[in-house]
Amino acid sequence: MNDERSRPEADEDIIEPAVFRPSDPQEWRAATRWRPATVISFAVLAGLAMVALFLFTSRPVLLEFTPDAQSVRVSGGITLPVGGRILMRPGTFRIEADLEGYHPLDEEIRVARGGESRFEFEFRPLPGLISINSEPVAGARVRVDGADVGATPLADLELEPGTYQISVAADRYLPQQQEFEVEGRGVTQRIDVELAPAWAELRLDTEPPGAEISLDDGTVVGTTPAEFELLQGAHTLTAKLEGYKAWQTQVQVVAGEDQVLDPVRLERADGLLMVSSRPAGATVTVDGNFQGRTPVEVQLRPGRDYQVDLFRPGYSRIRRQVRIVSGEEQRLAVDLPAELGDVRIAVQPEDAEVLVDGRGQGRANQTLSLPAVAHQIEIRKDGYVPYRTSVTPRPGFPQEISLSLQTVEEARRAAIRPVIETAAGQEMRLLRPDDFTMGASRREPGRRANEVLREVTLTRPFYLAVTEVTNAQFRQFAAGHNSGEWESHSLNGNRQPVVNITWQEAALFCNWLSEQDGLPKAYLVRNNRVVGFDPESTGYRLPTEAEWEWAARVKDDGSQLRFPWGNDMPPPERHGNYADRSIANLLGRTLLGYTDGSIVSAPVANYQPNHRGIHDLGSNVAEWVNDFYAGTSEDLPSNVVDPLGPDSGDYHVIRGASWMHGTLTELRLTFRDFGREGRADVGFRIARYLE
User: Fold this and answer.
1) Domain boundaries, the chain
2) pTM, two decimal places
């Protein structure tokens, strides 16, 4: 039953089929065509939307101009003036504005997002046009604030608005200066300058007339009676007329104030006397008044006679009478007769040449008659040292110069000083050594094996210090040195020889002393240590072993000493400082019965010098010498010239006896010792080559 009731309702919902018919295109186009009212409506709506968008996104912009602009143009986007402001969207805009009399304004602005924007602009005025004229002359130079801008007349000179200092100057006119205000904005302004003369007119009369008037620069301005113009300031006027003295005056000219100078009466001119002599340089007096030395000009008043005297040492006095004529120039020329004296020249060699005051006079052996004034005499010959002297001949009293010229070598030798003194105060004597035999015979009592006999030739003269170096002298080099003491006895006295020093310290002292005296250093030093020796140097050094032994042993006759005092023991009383009986309780080996007055080292030069004038050579303290130590005949060859010892070694030679020595071996002058470190009885003395 339910099915039956529902069937009719089902039938009512059945969709009936329909026939398909395609649309007509023309009908579709007609249906979709815009009507005019629709387009207008749409455009109005779009425009309103854009306006709304512009109003919503734009910002008010205030443009302020000083002074106010006559016209303003804004480009770069849409703008809308509203109530004194301009609506602009954010971005960049170009502002152009104009105002008469001012430079056009053209600037960019940038409008930012946010509130109102404000921009201020200021117009820059155009320059003013200035014309400048000068009277009564054109061509005056114009300066504006110190800068030259040209010469008058000037037209349309462009100047920015403001206040300027205008100055106008022309030759012979007073400069004018004024302050001027330039209006600018293209306004034309005119400046007229009246220049005042910078001169005044002067009048000058002379008696007699016809004098030439000149200024201090020599410019001639007229002939009297004269009227002339002078620029303001101080001037010197000179009036000259032949036969009259020149007249001068100083005038002060004030611009525009004319002057009439007092008339001038010119004085008759002096005469001019020109005095000359042969030879020149004679003293001239007129009526006893000194006028100068020839050649000389003398002005004298005319109309009278004058007494003129000329004299020069070595020449006879000359007197003349002259009369002077006004305005004339007179000449007085005089030959002075020489007053002669004889000078006899006697010279060896006979063919030497003589010069007097630089002029050759021929062979030297002659008698010269010379004026009685000082002369420079030179006698010379090739290969000889010239002789020079000054001589003043005396009439009636013959003089003689007698001499023998020295050869260059003779002069060199004569100039050599036999004794010199160092910067440290040490006296040194020149010694000229020769051949001798070093060492000792094997048969000699006390001889040691290292005293090798050998023949030596010394060719170079040398200086040797008279005394050993003292503590005081060494402390000039090493201020802090202390020689110490021995068994409570001081070794540090100023005049005692310096001890307790190494060979290195002794050599460095020599270099220091060379530097003080400006001599080349003898020792090569690296890192404050001696590493070599320069045998060609003439600087201070230690004596070589051969030099030391020659100076100590070899006498003038060629014989050689065994001991400092001679060839036999014992030494004479107080001959030198050795280990005497005063030290017997401190040393094991002493000289029995000998007394020298000193326990330890004595002051230098406390005992008599040896045959060469050298003190303590072989006593007082032993001495470092220059040589490295060697002890065999292989290392100590014979027949050598100027030996310097081995090239290297571990020790240096020590020569001579000291206050600690008292045996036969040690007291002999051939005794050789060696060492490396300082000792209480070892010092040194200095030497240097002559050349």
Assistant:
1) 48-122, 128-194, 199-265, 271-335, 340-411, 419-691
2) 0.51
